[in-house]
């Protein structure tokens, strides 16, 4: 687990250093915890990255069916390049598009992409990755390069993602406008309101989907998780470091201080409440990385929201939405497919029985 791999050394001043208890706390946040793809109860993972059906543009002899993801470079800001994954619809007709913002860390989603997104039958899927992340890599969270750690912060990630989606829109000019669903996995959910606003003029944003994202401002969600783990004092020490004059480049708990400063001031709950987009939030009540109290606090904030909002709570499911009832991710995709077949019913309508 990420929690066991955190480096507890820090270059912070003694008054700003956090104790070992925060090794679990930091790992247990939607904002910093779910770096690796979730485990699956279905077929075992591919034996190696070479076994995964991901092909580069122009690659000879690669499978050409619609279930294969292709590597698709997209420009970020300041000359950076994002290595995205793209897949066509698995079953015609094409009804909608899905853009996915993964969780934190430096591992890619290519090793699990085919299975993870299998249930999106009538959707074209675009999966963004942060600059410096190889979609095929399985790098453990504690092994991310120093360069990645230094550049990894929410404001930078948002700027790169906006630039990539603007470029994607330019490349799609002349194509039919399809409903767009933005999906945020764990930390990725924190970018959704800003991305939805950024692309609204070029693509009809039909819905936002949060997978294991509490919806709260990350600072508040972190405080609730720290409280659950008995590490509130350590969380306050991170706040002291954030308020200190130390440079953004200083390392603290495996992150740069710039990362923590962004997180400390990042708004999420209010933009989600005020946004005009239908919102589907899915979470497991056995999530070890985000406390139920965070999801429940967000539900209170959402009372009276003007746009549709619905929750799919999975009994016994973990942060990867895997539980006794099976793969919760595929249940989310089933709901999206039902909506795409009958959009007038709305995203929050019950899914018809098969």
From TrEMBL:
Origin superkingdom: Bacteria
PROSITE patterns (alphabetical): PROKAR_LIPOPROTEIN
Classification via Gene3D superfamilies: alpha/beta hydrolase
Protein name per its UniProtKB record: Alpha/beta hydrolase
